[in-house]
Design a protein that fits this description.
This protein has seven helices and eight strands. The protein is an alpha/beta fold and 193 residues long. The protein has a single domain, classed as Alanine racemase (TIM Barrel). The longest helix has 17 residues. It is globular.
C-alpha cells in the first residue's frame, strides 16, 4: 500500500459526536472539520482541552462569520468578496483560506468559476486577515472520470498560482485525490465508530 505521509486527514466530524471525536483524537487525528457553524462551535467548547486544528468545510453564510471566524484555523469555502469583507471585519490574525472552485459550473454547488480566479485573487490580496493557501473543490459523486478531471484542474491551478495546498477528496473519492496529489482529504463516514 502506498503511503502519503505529507497528506493531512481531516475528520469531517458531522457523523460523530464530541465523545467519539475524543477517541478519534486519541487515535492520532488532529484535524477536524465541520460544515455547520453552530455545530463546530458547540463541539469546540466540549473539546477545548484538546489541541485540535479546526477546519470549516461547508458553505459559510455571512451572518455566521462573526462567531465562527475567530474560532477556526482553516476555511475551505472562500468564494466571494462579500465573505472576504466579513472575515476581514471579524478576524484578528490572518486566516488560512482555500478558495472554493466550481470547476464544472454545477448549478447545485457553490464556488467560483475558474475564469474568475485572477480577479478574485487580485482583490483578496489586499485583505490582511486572509491568507489564500490553496484551492478546494468537490468531485462528481459516482463519476470517477469527471472527478479526476476536476482534481487535475485544481492541481494545474495550484502550480499556476504557486499556492502550497489543495483540499480535495472525500470518503468516496479520496483515492483519486491522493493519486492526483492532494494535501488535505476530508473523510467522514469512515470515522463512524
Amino acid at each position: 500500500m502506498e503511503s502519503f505521509p505529507e497528506v493531512k486527514v481531516i475528520c469531517a466530524s458531522k457523523y460523530v459526536n464530541a465523545l467519539e471525536m475524543r477517541e478519534i483524537y486519541q487515535a492520532g487525528i488532529r484535524h477536524f472539520g465541520e460544515n455547520h457553524a453552530q455545530v463546530l462551535l458547540d463541539k469546540k467548547a466540549q473539546l477545548n482541552d484538546l489541541s485540535i486544528v479546526w477546519h470549516f468545510i461547508g458553505h459559510l453564510q455571512t451572518n455566521k462569520v462573526k462567531k465562527l471566524i475567530p474560532e477556526i484555523n482553516y476555511l475551505h469555502s472562500l468564494d466571494s468578496i462579500k465573505l472576504a469583507n466579513e472575515i476581514q471585519k471579524f478576524r484578528q490574525t490572518p486566516l488560512d483560506c482555500f478558495i472554493e472552485l466550481n470547476v464544472n459550473k454545477d448549478p447545485n454547488k457553490t464556488g467560483l468559476s475558474v475564469e474568475k480566479i485572477d480577479d478574485f485573487l487580485k482583490e483578496v490580496m489586499f485583505y490582511d486577515k486572509i491568507r489564500v493557501v490553496g484551492f478546494m473543490a468537490m468531485g462528481v459523486d459516482g463519476d470517477t472520470n469527471q472527478t479526476k478531471a476536476i482534481f487535475e484542474v485544481l492541481k494545474s491551478l495550484k502550480i499556476k498560482y504557486n499556492l502550497p495546498y489543495l483540499s480535495m477528496g472525500m470518503t468516496q473519492d479520496y483515492d483519486i485525490a491522493l493519486s492526483v496529489g492532494t494535501d488535505f482529504v476530508r473523510i467522514g463516514r469512515k470515522f463512524i465508530l
